[in-house]
Structure formats: C-alpha cells, structure tokens
Amino acid sequence: MNFIKHGIEMWSVNEGEQRMDNHLDKLMNYIRFWQANGESQKMSARVKTRLNQMMDGKFTGGVAPFGYKLIKSGEINKKGK
After folding, report:
1. Over 60: is that where the pLDDT of 1 sits?
2. Sorted alphabetically, which InterPro entries does this protein's record hold (predicted)?
3. Which regions of 1-81 does DSSP assign to beta strands (E)?
4. Residues 7, 10: Cα–Cα separation, whole Å
5. Residue 4 in contact with residue 20, Cβ under 8 Å?
6. 3-state helix, strand and coil shares in percent for the chain, rounded to the nearest 5
7. What pLDDT does residue 12 have?
8. Which of 16, 28, 67, 79 is the most buried (most CB within 10 A)?
9. What's the total number of domains in the chain?
C-alpha cells in the first residue's frame, strides 16, 4: 500500500517528516531503516545472552525476587559486586 497516495504522512521524533518524493528520500529512508534493523539485531543478541545467563543460574543484578535471598558465590561482575 502506498501511504502517499492515501494522504498519510510519516513523522519521526528525531528526523521529522519522512518523505518519499524522490530517489534521494527513498535512499535515506532505506539507510535509516537498515541501521535501525542492525540495532534491533544487536539488542536481540544482548537479550538472548542475558536470558541464557539467567538459565545458567547466574543472577543478572537488581533486587532479589520476593522469597529469595542473595548468597555470595565469589564471582565478581564488571561493577565489582
């Protein structure tokens, strides 16, 4: 579906109006979408890593869940805790 034909405008908080009037506009939007996709893949990899750590029984930080208490294992994280 072509948004422009239906009078729909696309706006971004950071870049303003997303136009598709000419080849340069389309190229710039393609680059932005490609970059956003890359960031999404990086974040996905980080989340998967953390989930795997949690499955291995490693605590990833924060307050212990209700009913649990923290027991020192001798491991030190990047923050020295």
Report:
1. no
2. Resolvase-like_N_sf
3. 10-12, 16-18
4. 10
5. yes
6. 45, 5, 50
7. 77
8. 28
9. 1
